[in-house]
Design brief:
Structural class: alpha+beta
Shape: globular
Order of helices and strands: EEHHEEEEHEHEEEE
Number of helices: 4
Radius of gyration: 17 Å
CATH topology: Aminopeptidase
Largest sheet: 9 strands, mixed
CATH superfamily: Gcn5-related N-acetyltransferase (GNAT)
Number of strands: 11
Distance between the termini: 49 Å
Number of domains: 1
Helix content: 10-25%
């Protein structure tokens, strides 16, 4: 997906593509720069730890030279014990030097369009309501849901991709995504 429209004239042209294994190191460095050292202690991280992103829902934004300048991933969760499936979005991050260039918005629009195309029914996240509200997220349907660990309830937001998907949702989100393969350990000689 090429981006040039609706960005400020000084904004770089970026391409949004599927994330690859080759992006791991650059993504981790970008997340450290954009989110700081406390990023691994967030309650959302508890749902991501040891899991792989939802199939087909991990994206990288690359600048004209191919460098990673943005990232977003969505994760499979259940809406409470034995509850309906949904997605947890995050982290969404953009290189701090390119903040306000429209890259985060483009990543969000792309990720949500793909989630809809793949048949997902709802997306949840913990984030700033003024930013995510423009994509349709609100706390309106998260009142009976919770995150594992500490979080600010007013920042727990949801978007129904299918109307009514969250009507009966209640309980604590549970990770349901594919587990990461264990790293191979070297054999002792």
């Amino acid at each position: 997906m090429e981006l040039a429209k609706n960005l400020p004239a000084v904004a770089p042209v970026v391409q949004i593509v599927a994330e690859t294994e080759a992006d791991i190191a650059a993504r981790e460095m970008l997340l450290d720069r954009a989110m700081g050292p406390g990023r691994r202690r967030k309650s959302s991280e508890k749902l991501r730890r040891g899991r792989r992103p939802s199939e087909g829902l991990a994206f990288a934004a690359r600048n004209g030279s191919g460098a990673l300048v943005g990232t977003v991933r969505l994760w499979d969760v259940a809406l409470g014990e034995g509850g309906a499936p949904a997605l947890l979005l995050g982290p969404l991050a953009v290189d701090p030097a390119l903040k306000h260039a429209g890259i985060g918005s483009a990543l969000m629009q792309h990720a949500l369009a793909e989630a809809r195309r793949l048949g997902h029914r709802a997306v949840l996240l913990v984030g700033d309501a003024p930013y995510y509200g423009r994509f349709g997220f609100s706390a309106e349907k998260t009142g009976r849901l919770s995150m594992p660990g500490p979080y600010e309830p007013q920042r727990f937001l949801a978007l129904e991709l299918v109307e009514g998907a969250l009507d009966d949702a209640a309980g604590t989100l549970k990770a349901t995504g594919r587990r990461m393969k264990p790293a191979k350990l070297p054999h002792a000689a």
